[in-house]
Predict the 3D structure of the following.
Amino acid sequence: MADIDTSKVSRWDLHGRRHVVQVLRTGVQRTIRCGTCGWRGGAQFLPWLKAEEHLAQAHQATVDPTAA
């Protein structure tokens, strides 16, 4: 059985709502899942970039909580 590693990308929209996309990794396979709209996609390379793009385009969520 393969180990599943997860991480997430969080962004806030201009209305203060938090949007989260999870990045699931099983071996070399990466699946991206949006907690807001249920969108799913695959990304072999740079899944976090694809997650950020989805948040910006679909939810206008561009405020990074980790940026100083």
In short: The mean pLDDT is 90. The chain has one helix and five strands. The CA atoms of residues 37 and 58 lie 9 Å apart.
